[in-house]
Design brief:
574 residues, alpha+beta, 9 helices, binds oxidized coenzyme A, globular, 8-stranded antiparallel beta sheet
Length: 574
């Protein structure tokens, strides 16, 4: 191993940028091109990647630091082959600003049409996407102007976002927006037309290049635009050079004003993964920047029911409508639900359904109506497994982790899903998506209603770890603190009423899964062993399955196999 320094590579015209996020800490393993820190300028935030794979030895900057080209970002332990304490390939990663010339024609930032050089009055100016370096097909995430708006030189027109950077693209000319050629979600590239302006002809006193429409002779303003970066393909801005004439200085600190939430790319990504609408958050960072903590806090308040997103509010309304439609039968073309004045028959109390109950009701209703359910009931002999569970708990008494039957059932379900992959699948149109991961959901009864937290990668965990995670998740569920990631991604769900009682029931499949296992309370029963009735502890199993994907024989085999595993848990190892 050798130590290798990673420096801030060429960030173009930018003098200093602020470190707004540290994405790694000492001891972390990083891959080549993995982002180490996020920095922010007036108009762009960008992540600075590692040029090599290694283990972070030390991080050399802290939040709020101002860094510039050459500043030390981190020291990595890397596999030999590079000189110790050699500067990371900052030079290799950097592309001098001068190299980012505006290509003739395609990349011209503005093209006055029919304008005579230096003449007064107005002309039509096409403002195109300037050279944005190595990027292709960056997404438009905000459009900040509309037809009729007056824009100033360098005023931001749109914001685009790649995997690792978001940046504003400014106007290369002042004028009145006549036509808008981009919309949210568009993928844009260098040279694409953004807007057509009615602008002052010759405002920059620059004569058009002979025989062309201004094209290469016109420079892009020295705004914050990303430049192509050689290996690794980092996202770093560089001023776009290439013109002899001076452009006006930057406007100071332009925080996006058009309503776009101010957040770094990784925070945006994090929020997108959680489904958090950034526009509904108030940032607690400098200049109102939304931080990861803000996103987490927002998620927590949503889960605790303190806050509701606008989308959830409209979903809830739709759910309420659906509940209404379901209860009056109109949505299904059935005769209306009977309307009864119950108070005629005795005292009553009316109670609004809790929010989670309404949402659950809408989901259950859809799943019940859309999925052709069949339920197979069976019993598993868990006499030995229960004895093992009890002795395990006795041995681990001091650890405070109690293993319940449900943890064994999760492990057994993984083994059955492995053997019958069509149970670990989802329907997507006419395709079946077969999953190669094993995330198991379990129904948890909470004061707010039914929640389904998910034990991720249950195939890679032991029964004790699963028990511990289940305990933590069940507690979070009861406290209303489950986050969306705690409840997403399940392949298969188990609903255990074993702690309560009962024999068999028909659990409703949790779409888009294709099966669910219901479990009730085990009881000691007389079982014929070929010679005599012997007392055995029998666990009732109820497997509901989607008949579009699974057929009855497969379901029976699944249940039989599950019973065999629970009867002799050593089979999990096979
Ligand atoms: N047979 C007999 N006893 C069982 C059992 C079974 N199948 N499953 C659990 N038990 C016992 C446990 O061993 C425990 O006994 P002790 O207190 O003596 O140790 C007791 O029942 C309580 O168990 P538990 O419910 O706390 O633990 P769990 O791991 O079985 O379940 C959880 C955890 C969160 C799933 C459960 O508390 C819960 O919420 N269940 C309800 C799920 C539900 O509502 N399903 C319906 C969905 S469809 O509307």
């Amino acid at each position: 191993m050798a130590l290798m320094e990673v420096h801030v590579p060429d960030i173009g015209d930018l003098d200093e940028v602020t470190v707004i996020e540290l994405l790694v800490k000492p001891g972390d393993s990083v891959a080549a091109e993995q982002s180490l820190i996020t920095v922010e300028s007036d108009k762009a935030s960008m992540e600075i990647p590692s040029s090599r794979a290694g283990v972070v030895h030390s991080v050399s900057c802290k939040l709020g630091d101002k860094v510039k080209q050459g500043s030390l970002v981190a020291v990595l332990d890397v596999a030999d082959a590079v000189p110790a304490i050699a500067p990371a390939s900052a030079a290799a990663t950097a592309l001098p600003a001068a190299a980012v010339a505006v290509p003739a024609g395609a990349a011209d930032a503005r093209v006055p049409v029919g304008a005579s050089a230096g003449s007064p009055g107005t002309g039509t100016i096409q403002v195109r996407v300037p050279d944005i370096g190595d990027f292709k097909d960056v997404s438009v995430i905000e459009v900040m102007v509309k037809p009729g708006d007056q824009v100033k030189l360098e005023q931001s027109l749109i914001t685009v976002e790649s995997d690792k950077a978001s940046m504003e693209i400014p106007s290369s000319a002042p004028g009145l927006v006549r036509e808008l050629h981009v919309k949210l979600g568009d993928k844009i590239n260098v040279g694409d037309l953004m807007v057509v302006l009615d602008g002052p002809v010759g405002w920059d006193t620059l004569p058009p290049a002979a025989g062309t429409t201004v094209a290469a002779a016109v420079a892009v303003p020295a705004a914050v635009l990303p430049a192509a970066v050689a290996a690794p393909a980092a996202v770093l801005p560089a001023a776009v050079a290439g013109s002899a004439h001076t452009m006006p200085a930057h406007e100071p600190a332009l925080v996006p004003t058009g309503g776009l939430p101010h957040a770094s790319p990784s925070v945006r990504k994090f929020a997108r993964e959680l489904g958090v609408p950034l526009a509904e958050l108030k940032g607690s960072g400098p200049k109102g920047r939304i931080t990861e903590t803000d996103v987490q806090a927002f998620t927590r308040s949503v889960m605790a029911g303190g806050v509701q997103t606008q989308a959830a509010a409209s979903k809830e309304k739709a759910a309420a409508n659906e509940v209404a439609a379901a209860t009056d039968g109109a949505g299904l073309g059935l005769i209306p639900w009977p309307k009864v004045d119950f108070s005629k028959f005795g005292p009553i109390e009316r109670r609004d359904m809790a929010r989670i109950k309404k949402i659950t009701a809408a989901n259950l209703h859809r799943n019940w109506v859309m999925i052709p359910h069949v339920t197979n009931h069976d019993d598993a002999d868990i006499t030995e497994l229960e004895a093992f569970r009890v002795s395990t708990n006795r041995e681990n008494e001091k650890s405070g982790i109690k293993v319940t039957m449900l943890a064994f059932l999760i492990k057994a379900a993984v083994a059955a899903l492995r053997k019958f992959p069509e149970f670990n699948a989802s329907l997507d149109g006419e395709q079946l998506v077969l999953k190669q991961y094993y995330h198991i959901g379990f129904a948890a009864d909470t004061p707010n209603g039914l929640m389904v937290p998910v034990v991720k990668d249950a195939d890679k965990k032991g029964v004790i770890q699963i028990s511990q995670e289940m305990g933590d998740l069940a507690k979070k569920a009861r406290d209303g603190k489950l986050g969306p990631t705690d409840m997403s991604g399940a392949c298969f769900t188990i609903s255990s009423l074993g702690g309560i009682g009962g024999r068999y029931f028909t659990p409703i499949i949790n779409a888009p899964e294709v099966a669910i296992l219901g479990v009730c309370r085990s009881t000691t029963e007389p079982v014929w062993d070929g010679k005599a009735f012997v007392p055995r502890l029998m666990l009732p199993l109820s497997l509901s399955w989607d008949h579009r994907v699974i057929d009855g024989a497969a379901a029976a085999r699944f249940n039989v196999y599950l019973g065999q595993i629970l009867g002799d848990f050593r089979r999990v190892l096979l």
